[in-house]
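Feature request, filed as a ticket because there's no other form

It would be nice if the structure record came with a short human-readable summary line next to the tokens. Right now we just get the raw output. Example of a typical job, pasted below so the devs can see what we mean:
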Amino acid sequence: MKTALFLLCSLSLSTIVFAQSQKDRLDIFIDCQMYCDWVYIKQEIQFVNYMQNRQEADVYILATRQSTGAGGREVQLAFIGNNEFSGIQDTIKYFTDPNATDAIEREQLVNTLKKGLLQFLVQTSMADQITYAIEPEETEEGMEATEENDDPWNNWVFNIGGNGWLNGESTYSNVDLTGRFSASKVTDKHKLNFSTFYNYETSTFKLTDGDETYVIRSYNARLEYVKSLGPNWSVGFTTRTGSSTFGNMDISTTFKPAIEYNIFPYEEASTRRFSFNYSIGPEYYNYTDTTIYDLLSETRMRHGLDIEFNQTQKWGNVSLDIGIQQYLHGFELFNAYINPNIEWQIFKGLSIDFGGYASFVRDRINIAKSDISDQDILLQIKQLDTDFTYFTYFGLNYRFGSKYNNFVNPRF
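Raw output as currently delivered:
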């Protein structure tokens, strides 16, 4: 039986004076692909130098996370040695509780960072200043008690909530209400997710000819089931039903079986993913108004292919999502999209990030045939037909100056 041994290197390391000469310190760069409380990290780990550039660091630390079935997070810290520490690598994973506060999560992160840095610190002049403490080995009685403590919820997790927004002035008022519910059960072999929401929004304008009120309503219920077929394959289905005044839908229902292949094992998804997902199934629509195809209801078959690539490395991260959805009764009715995002540190101090989303739209069979008023267009109350949609962003940053980033000063 495995013993629960934890190296608590924080005991003496936290007491090392910060005035120690910088040349004796370990130079580290933490690449947080999630939220990190830098003030807390630097206050609790004062025995290293925090570098501005990864190229100058002795240890590069990549922090990523992904959601767990219970609503918590699996956090992965990859420690990669540079310079005289080249060839030393380690990966540590830990889980956060779904009800954990920010204070608890940041403490877990700091403790894990200290554990991962230990193997590098013992090879520096600081080795003699480190002391260790090992927790007592857990008894078999304790292990048996833990094993007998079964989950009364059988891995089911539920969420229920809502939001409300009210704003206005003497000539305008707006009310926006949303309710939601979800239930999920996630294990390493199966994933079952159910979610539903309802949204109601009303806006009232005081015009010269009197008050005008506009209402937008929508609801949606979605069920997804996925079964694992090993480290690279998955099968399952999604089904959805809903309604939308904006989309000219009294009701719409879909059912789509799907299969997915991931070139990399799913356990590596936090750092790299290259997957192909194909789905096909019927879609039923009951429209509020007659569509541009002179229909009030119809059932159509639709299939789609989605290709997703994600990779997070020392130089940055890149993601690319491309795909196509197409109706089988008319091959000209399709929607093709591309969604690239790149964060790239080109060289010391210079980094860029850019990305966006673009789609070619040929499949809006739900557009109402009736005329749409200017008010409907301006207030986006009803959906319009279009040939494309897009958005994009671009950023450039160059940093120069001191290579150290050790101090925090939260004053003001």
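Something like this underneath would help us a lot:
Helices lie at 10-13, 38-44, 102-121, 140-148, 374-379.
The CA atoms of residues 271 and 313 lie 7 Å apart.
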